[in-house]
Structures
1.
Amino acid sequence: MMEQNYKAVIIDDDASAADHLLMALQKYPFISVENLSRTAAAGKRYIEKIQPDLLFLDIELPDINGTEFLELLKEAVDWEMQVVFFTAYDKYMLHAIRQSAFDYLLKPIEPDELDKVIQRFLQLREERLLPHPIVPPALRYEAGEQCGTSFMVSTPTNDIFVLHPMDIGFFQYNSERKLWEIILKDRPSILMKKSTNAGNIKAYAPYFVQINQSYILNIKYLVMLQNNRCVLYPPFDGYTDLVVTRKYRKDLMDCFFQL
């Protein structure tokens, strides 16, 4: 099977090491290095613009430590990006792992070690393309199932609705009206009052989980994740925009298996 193309960014102030890595990556025609930056500040701008699949990040940068930079990136990156730290100092290895780096390379980079990283990356991406059923029996939705406690919501016109959690498939943020909207299984959607925020919504039931900036899902209706896209039980199975971003994926999975 032919590999798809992947974008990469390199951030390293060591010109010799960065050029060496750039040349080594030319062995992989499916990886395109879109930018090589010398500072974290410059690299961050390109990362947000390019949205690379791979980031090769030096730990010793002139403007910030690489591990600290990775923490800053977590707020900005909402797509799947694997980070590979590389440095001449192996003292950082344990800290790099704790910071959830995908992998780690020592300078000077050995071709065999780089190849292992690339093969791991390809294997991970191939696994991401496969459906991953996550349907523990305890969380399957059965027709007529009742669970959770009813709660009241207020609309922008001060109407009050009493809803049961299982009436709700998900909440979506209406960017035009700048408020949250409730998507229901057997009636039209309901707009929530403007002061309602994501924290208020998630407090209604333990299985209301945020999956990206614009959607909060009732995971009782979740059948599986397929390419980071939520597949739901009827009557919500026709919705295709429910994508789990990297920032929220761990919270979703933790909540799903803990309930």
2.
Amino acid sequence: MASEGRRTFDVSLVTPEGAVFEGEAELLIVPGADGEIGILARHAPLVATLRAGATRVHVRRGEDVREYATGPGFFKVEQDRALALVDDAAEAAQIDPERARNQLETARSELERVERGESDADRWQLEQRIRHAENQLQIVGGAESADQRPLTSAG
């Protein structure tokens, strides 16, 4: 399972469309609801909620790191296996800035409708979609094109 004395564990990053990453890693960092969570082999069992953010799979620490912009979801660690179930995941090299800008504007428009009382969509989900789109743009260096308006007029 490990080479050169390094311990690895199985990682699956899955969206509703299917697996985005499946393989072994030495380190996994996911965006937990209360902050980043780092996982190494032999981690204690864990179940957590994920927020939109960056997920980093360190296949070989310091050498091969795969970064994904991920949406909100759930995370489970059990017996040297980590499973992240997220609503969307885009590998940094595959992010389409135009698609991310469209996602951002759509989510912001829907959030404005919620604030005006014209929609009963889930506010938290919309805020996570906004953060996910902003995160994608930041990862590809397009943050300047996604103006940094606050999520709500209240701040």
